[in-house]
Each structure stands twice: as C-alpha cells, then as structure tokens.
Amino acid sequence: MSPEMPLEDSALDLLRACHQKMRSFCVGCEKLVTAVAEGDPRAPGSAASVARYFREALPRHAEDEDESLTPRLLAVRPALAPVLAELEREHHEIVRRLPVVCASLDAIAVGQLEAPREFAREVAELVALLRNHIEVEETTWFPWVDTIPADERTSIREEMAERRRR
Question: Phi, psi (5° rounding) for residue 94?
Fold first, then answer.
C-alpha cells in the first residue's frame, strides 16, 4: 500500500489489497529465482524492488494485523484466540526470515549472489509460508472484521495509514 490510501477504502479493503500485493511479490520472487538462474539482466532491478517491499511494507502489514486488528477481533470474537496467536507467531517467523532473503536480494541487486541454490530454497520456503498464512487469515478472521464496531474499524484504518507515514 502506498502512504496515500484512498479515504473510501475500509480497513478490510486495505488488508485485501495488502494480501494481493503479497501474492504478487510471491510470484515476483519465484520469477526472480528463474531470472537469476538464467542470468537475466533485469534481475538486479527486480531484486532491489522486492527487497524494498520486504523491508518496508511487509513488516508494517504484520504490525497492522498484530497491533490493530488482533486486539479488536479478540474483543468481538474471543474464540479466534488460538488461531490469532498462531498467526502472530507466523508473523514473527516471516519477519525473522526476511533479513536472510533480503541479503540475497541485495547481492543480486549488485550482481554478487554467491549461492543461487540457497536463494531458491529461501524463496521457496518464504513463499510457501506467506501463501499458507494468507489463506488461513482470509478464511479464519477476515469474515469477522466487519463485526468490529464501525468506529473501531475506522481507527484500524487510521492506524494503518499512520504506519505508512513513518
């Protein structure tokens, strides 16, 4: 998401957009693995873009969910506690993996990746984790977001926008 979010978009609309962007970057990562293996001259620019997304946008998205959504979802649907706790743990796991992947992306960006097979493995693991995580979120707690009181959903959206201004 960009720092300037449309005012008419709801928090759930913005989360869906974030998930779509995550899916797009997953595909981009997989294409990048192939591009690196084939020596594609566009790989360095693509790697820099993916690294920027992983460093900036993805951690903010995890904060959106963990800090803004989880407490409010628990207030309206306490039965979600186990799944929300697991998803938060997965956020930490995803964020923990990012520096390793970003280091490889940085190396690709300057044409100095020394371990392309290791990079391919790192990407495959991260992409699988992200895709599964997105699916679980969209099927377990997305349906409950609209049960959060309207003023709280507005606050979630404002908190998301504030994170993007940092």
Answer: -60, -50
Question: What is this structure's pTM?
Answer: 0.89
Asked whether 149 and 4 are in contact (CB, 8 A), the reply is no
Complete domains list, the chain, with CATH: 11-165 (1.20.120.520)
DSSP 55-101: IIIHHHHHHIIIIIIHHHHHHH-GGGHHHHHHHHHHHHHHHHHHHHH
What's the rounded Cα separation, in Å, for the pair 43 and 141? 36
Confidence of residue 8 (pLDDT cuts 50, 70, 90): low
Q: Find, among 129, 151, 166, the residue nearest to 26 by Cα.
A: 129
Chain centroid offset of residue 161 CA: 16
**d(Cα 144, Cα 15) in Å, to the nearest integer?**
13
* Helix or strand holding residue 47 (H, E): helix 43-52
